[in-house]
């Protein structure tokens, strides 16, 4: 089983998470996530994104253009008001040497479109001492009817420090003067406004740890989101594209100052160049990663996923009464595997579960289990005391009634290297509507030959007061829809005292019944019954597979299965910190 179980569960839930018609669809799940302050996770509202200095040729171009235009404005608008006056031609402007590059900051940023998401296949499964670590990608824009594009909208601040210099100096001039709306000899140009970016080629790779919390009968399963890593959909990195017609430049706020207004068109192009620069692109990717990996976000996503998984298991199997999870009986399994198996054996023992054996066995129609047609059982020769030897003794048209009167207590099941081994108690239920009461009964026709002549056909009744089926089942299939149960072995166990055989053959009845009471005959009946049953194991496995698939799918996909009670609100101890 091991990591195959994890891939099976992932594939089973992935189909449902990616189907908007299913109650467990991923967009709806993410909409349910609430942060610690009660606000929804989506849309993601980021605090200040400091993109930092815009480097490279693009940054230098912005810096020089800003300095040139600043000094042009000084000469045209403000130099005439300087005190003391100065000759503008004696000076020029350069980016401030101590801070020569433009700096881009996003005071607010809101990400929309992350709810149009689909889960991709598992990329890695790592077995841990306490569970598993898995990674899987998230793809966006795949559902019609939801936003097709991821956008980042908000406010920006583009800053450029400049200074006036004398001649060809590379430092601020020491000449001091004052003029309106300008700081001399150093100034900082602040451009603000609204922006909108579209994000293309984005894939988010989620690293998730699957582990247990609690111990013994109080164990529960927890999902811990360890990291969310942005990457490109292919060889290219995700790209943030500025929607230029949504970019605005705020007017100056100081009365009488026209500095920003005069520079507006130049500054707008500077802002465009800043957003499109490789420096900004790299910083945007990093800020996106930082925002998505905030402890609050990861913890709350993990909590919601944990609650949903618990609800899925409760729906597909059965809810666990507090402190009642079976514990022990299997050794050497991964703790997560063991937990899921313990949930399974609890469900099998629960009359309310869809997997309760009487329900499953009565639902199997190919082959029909209740009643079950065993066909023909050959016993060979039997000595009829006082009458000679009955040869080629055969039970024909054997029908078994009561095969669905079967229960498996949790302590009767164990997980052994991926194989479910269980001892099924037969004929232990009494007075249950629709379930044949004890004993387990086999009816059919009894015949043999004696001295070459066929005997008259007689009616046969076999009653087994108490018995058990010792079974071994293995599971295969990529996901629930292709689940296949293989019945590796199925053996009927009963004592000679619990077996009664009786025939009705007219004058020969007493002789035949006396012979059938012999221990050797009963042993032969037990052996031949198991041999006949073994021939049907492939068909029984196929029939069980179909019924179990349908039973679990109906539980998973029922309309009330989509939202866990209290979704978005942490359950005590349900999801530990990723730290």
UniProtKB/TrEMBL annotation:
<feature type="compositionally biased region" description="Basic and acidic residues">
    <location>
        <begin position="551"/>
        <end position="561"/>
    </location>
</feature>
<protein>
    <submittedName>
        <fullName>Uncharacterized protein</fullName>
    </submittedName>
</protein>
<feature type="region of interest" description="Disordered">
    <location>
        <begin position="551"/>
        <end position="579"/>
    </location>
</feature>
């Amino acid at each position: 089983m091991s990591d195959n179980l994890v891939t099976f569960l992932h594939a089973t839930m992935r189909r449902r998470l990616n189907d908007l018609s299913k109650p467990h669809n991923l967009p709806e799940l993410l909409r349910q996530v609430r942060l610690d302050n009660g606000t929804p996770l989506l849309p993601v509202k980021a605090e200040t994104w400091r993109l930092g200095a815009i480097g490279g040729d693009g940054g230098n171009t912005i810096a020089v253009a800003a300095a040139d235009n600043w000094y042009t404005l000084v000469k045209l608008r403000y130099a005439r008001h300087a005190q003391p006056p100065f000759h503008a031609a004696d000076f020029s402007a350069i980016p401030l040497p101590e801070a020569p590059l433009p700096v881009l900051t996003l005071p607010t940023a809101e990400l929309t479109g992350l709810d149009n998401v689909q889960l991709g296949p598992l990329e890695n499964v790592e077995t841990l001492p306490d569970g598993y670590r898995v990674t899987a990608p998230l793809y966006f824009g795949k559902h019609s009817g939801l936003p097709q594009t991821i956008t980042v909208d908000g406010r920006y601040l583009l800053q450029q420090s400049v200074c006036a210099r004398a001649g060809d100096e590379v430092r601020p001039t020491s000449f001091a003067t004052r003029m309106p709306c300008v700081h001399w000899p150093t100034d900082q140009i602040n451009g603000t406004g609204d922006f909108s970016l579209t994000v293309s080629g984005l894939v988010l790779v989620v690293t998730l740890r699957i582990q247990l919390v609690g111990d013994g009968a109080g164990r529960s399963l927890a999902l811990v989101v360890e990291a969310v890593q942005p990457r490109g959909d292919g060889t290219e990195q995700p790209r943030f594209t500025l929607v230029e017609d949504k970019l605005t430049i705020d007017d100056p706020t100081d009365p009488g100052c026209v500095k920003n207004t005069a520079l507006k068109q130049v500054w707008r192009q500077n802002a465009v160049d800043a957003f499109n620069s490789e420096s900004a692109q790299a910083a945007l990717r990093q800020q996106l990663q930082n925002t998505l990996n905030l402890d609050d976000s990861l913890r709350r996503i993990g909590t919601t996923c944990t609650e949903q998984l618990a609800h899925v298991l409760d729906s597909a199997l059965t809810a666990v009464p507090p402190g009642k999870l079976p514990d022990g009986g299997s050794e050497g399994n991964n703790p997560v595997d063991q937990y899921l198996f313990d949930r399974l054996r609890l469900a099998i023992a629960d009359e309310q579960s869809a997997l309760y054996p009487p329900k499953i066995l009565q639902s199997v129609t190919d082959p029909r289990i209740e009643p079950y047609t065993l066909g023909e059982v050959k016993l060979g020769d039997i000595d009829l005391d006082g009458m000679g030897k009955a040869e080629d003794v055969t039970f024909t048209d054997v029908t078994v009634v009561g095969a669905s009167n079967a229960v498996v207590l949790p302590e009767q099941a164990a997980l052994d290297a991926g194989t479910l081994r269980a001892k099924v108690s037969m004929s232990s239920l009494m007075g249950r509507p629709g379930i044949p009461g004890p004993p387990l009964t086999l009816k059919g026709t009894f015949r043999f030959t004696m001295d070459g002549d066929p005997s008259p056909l007689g009616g046969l009744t076999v009653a087994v007061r108490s018995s058990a089926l010792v079974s071994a089942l293995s599971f295969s299939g990529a996901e629930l829809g292709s689940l296949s149960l293989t019945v590796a072995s199925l053996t009927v166990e009963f004592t000679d005292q619990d077996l009664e055989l009786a025939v009705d053959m007219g004058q020969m009845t007493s002789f035949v019944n006396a012979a059938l009471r012999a221990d050797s005959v009963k042993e032969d009946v037990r052996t031949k019954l198991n041999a006949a049953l073994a021939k049907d194991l492939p068909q029984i496995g196929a029939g069980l597979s179909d019924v179990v698939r349908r039973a679990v799918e109906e539980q998973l996909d029922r309309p009330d299965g989509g939202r866990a009670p209290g979704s978005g609100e942490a359950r005590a101890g349900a999801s530990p910190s990723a730290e």
